[in-house]
Design goal:
With 38 residues, the protein is of the alpha+beta class. Helix content is 16%, strand content 21%. A two-stranded antiparallel ribbon has the order 1-2. Residues 1-21 are annotated as: Disordered.
Amino acid sequence: MLMFDYDRDIMQPPEEREERDPADWIFSAGQWIYVGDC
């Protein structure tokens, strides 16, 4: 299990992808989850 990295997990947005809007991501349970296609 990866160590929790505050700067990496909290301060930085998820990787931007052309087809995915960063606003469609949420941080939950220690990981970024894409919710744009729900």
